[in-house]
Design brief:
homodimer, Rossmann fold
Chain lengths: ~220, ~220
């Protein structure tokens, strides 16, 4: 099976690059969060709202993966933090080498941050297998996407430390059973944190930002 | 570049299988529509509403690609048409061999249909390159996903004969510029048809069903 061999080799090379990144992030005492969701679940909008709440107290930065356009990194820069777009040239996920190259090319602005947000390519499947040296993955699901998604895309929900339900302001206008989604996530990943929020109205944003601050404190308390 | 070689070989093998499927569908006078979108854009909900409007006059059937669960094929069967689930074993798209195998295993119920709907795995990227022997691709985008998506995922919009904007009933509750999306689609694919609809309220469903009926007539008028 030559196709499988190649996939194994690609993943092994990625793992080595991710391990090196993880050492770098540990030395720089930076918390790294890898955000994964379908296109349009609201990753960039959540980050804009997060930046507005946290940028005065924390040094934040972003890496934005996309097939095409510089739009997401532009939005984060407008929100007031350094950000760099990674164009994947058609690939359906970021890999650790791309992250390493982007950080090297960007230089000082993304070094020694408190929190680095990596916004992956919009895709619930491909990014799951590619470690980027992050502290943890966050999977986002919007209330407009239907309440059957965790069981339909189980791997990413099983591997994400945090599941964020976005766009809860739309709940009155869609058929969506929040309890059913909570139950699916709990089945796939009993230790996962579950956050419900709307970046548009601000509901739930405080809990999300508190979670990030707590994870940063915890990482730094371990890295003595 | 062994990785690229393998990809080329996989795509060439898929193209051969797709060509054979296309001959079969031509002989059976079946219109085949390959529906592609992010998870949660409303492919299955659109098909349920389409079936309710068309099943009395047309022989319809469905193939549903997913990573996990039989849920989508179940929903189409409950809507009243034969349907078969294809579980891709983690792969982020359907391929022509999977379609061929599923049709062979299903036997009579999906043979000689008027229209066969193939609901691809929820993913705006990977399914783009895999021809399934379809007459045309339909890309779906929901009003909850943001109005920047065609330029961010250009390949699938460039290759789809029809772009469907779903969930227009949510327009009063989201920030979404329909004209901007129309303009992006027209830039990427000047010949594309653009349909706006809500499967939930029924708005736009008549135009969508008329388009399918017209495509079926046109295919059959050519295949003399």
């Amino acid at each position: 099976m030559p196709e499988l061999d190649v996939k194994q080799k690609v993943l092994a090379a990625n793992q080595a690059a991710a391990a090196a990144l993880r050492r770098t992030f540990r030395d720089q005492r930076t918390l790294v969060v890898n955000l994964i969701s379908s296109p349009g679940s609201g990753k960039t909008t959540l980050l804009e709202a997060t930046v507005a709440r946290m940028k005065d107290r924390y040094r934040l930065g972003g890496l934005d993966g996309d097939i095409a356009t510089e739009r997401d990194a532009d939005r984060l820069r407008k929100a007031g933090i350094p950000a760099r777009q990674i164009l994947t040239g058609g690939a359906c996920h970021l890999d650790a080498r791309q992250v390493d190259t982007a950080l090297a090319e960007e230089g000082e602005t993304l070094r020694g941050l408190d929190i680095l947000f990596i916004e992956n390519v919009g895709n619930l499947i491909c990014p799951t297998s590619y470690d980027l040296g992050e502290d943890f993955k966050v999977v986002l699901l919007s209330t407009a996407e239907g309440d059957d998604k965790p069981f339909k895309y189980p791997a990413i929900f099983a591997r994400s430390k945090v599941a964020v339900l976005t766009k809860v302001d739309l709940l009155p206008h869609v058929d969506f059973d929040v309890a059913a989604v909570r139950a699916q996530v709990a089945t796939l990943n009993p230790g996962a944190r579950f956050v419900e929020l709307s970046a548009r109205t601000g509901e739930g944003m405080e809990a999300w930002c508190a979670l990030l601050a707590e994870e940063l404190r915890e990482k730094r308390s371990k890295a003595v």
